[in-house]
Amino acid sequence: MLCYSDDANSIIKRQRRASSLLLEEVLQGSLERECLEERCTHEEAREVFENDEMLKMFWDIYYGGRRCSSSPCQHNGVCEDSIRGYTCTCAEGYEGENCAFAKNECHHQAKVGCDHFCYPGSNSYRCSCADGYELGKDKKQCIALDACACGRLQDSDNLISETRKKSDERFPWQVLLLNSEGKGFCGGVLLKSNFVLTTAECALLHSHFQIRVGAGPNGTSAIGKIMQVGEKHIHIRYDEDTGENNIALLQLQEHVECDNYHLPVCTPERDFAEHVLIPNLAATVGGWRMEGDELQGEELQVSYLPAEDCKQLLNTSLTNRQFCGHLQEAVDKRLAGGSFLVTEYKGTWFLTGILGSWPLEDTDWETLLFTNTARIHTSKTYKDMGNDKFLNVYVEIGLDLFITLKMLSLIYGIYVFPYE
Q1: pTM for the whole thing?
Q2: Which of 68, 85, 191, 413 would you label with 148, given CA atoms 20 to 30 Å apart?
């Protein structure tokens, strides 16, 4: 036991709970008067102890067992102390660890709530999931339906990975476009097991090219799969001069077999992307940087840049289908076209943008201009085989990215055009 003077009061001997045993080793008589007979403050406890280590040891146990005294439960929630913690019983209509969130509102910053998409309601919010998932029994959790469920990072034991090391490997949805000589020239992102999104500029560079899916850091990983491009579809309103609508959809001849290294990214609903992912969360650019004649894998951290700041820095106007990101670290190498922007939300990765042309030499390399992929629709025009009636099907990326693939045999044309 610890005493600091001969005439110090004897150590407290009264019976306590098991969690208080350590207090008997550190408490002095003056502390009993200050902190047991009545509630004490941190400063009052500091006056008793002669070093910070002893103070911290006491305070962690003392305050940790009486946390309800700080009234943590909001909106008339009832607090109950527990060992080194507390529990809130929320009033009707509220939820969360501290009863901070109304059940009829969407609170994306909360641990509770929807795993993916949320819609407010009169009495309660409603949840839905990205492609390849279904709602769990609690109607909030999103459960993967199969191995191709989008936006997941898994370790070698097929467990969901909470962290990833930037330099270890590329995103499983990152792809590399290869010319006839087998050299990489642009990037892209896997949207479905047989569809890749890249830029129109990249898609027009070569008449014939292949795609390496699951490419490693230098684009030549043994786990990479070479896929043939069946069709390429340039945005119908792509403007080569201004770079507006600089996107293209590539249809592969075969489906990619999904595993830890080959997976599609999730595509978010428009409101979710524009009000939650893009303005509020840090994002990652995944792509390829130019190293002489070769492309090397690259990842960069990006934060959202307000439109007015972007216009001033780039000296350009923005459409409602564009937004800017600010690099959090300096770069001295160009990124290849087709590099993409992804944002993690509650363990799932969502595509929010695709990078067009790299800024010119005399412009700001820290500010990047992205096409907002949440504002893209796919339009499929096909001919009804029973008559000559043409049908137009509009499918928004992030809701149902594509109509049933069996309809592809009926498709006369496939275009990507802006949401209006």
Answers
A1: 0.71
A2: 413
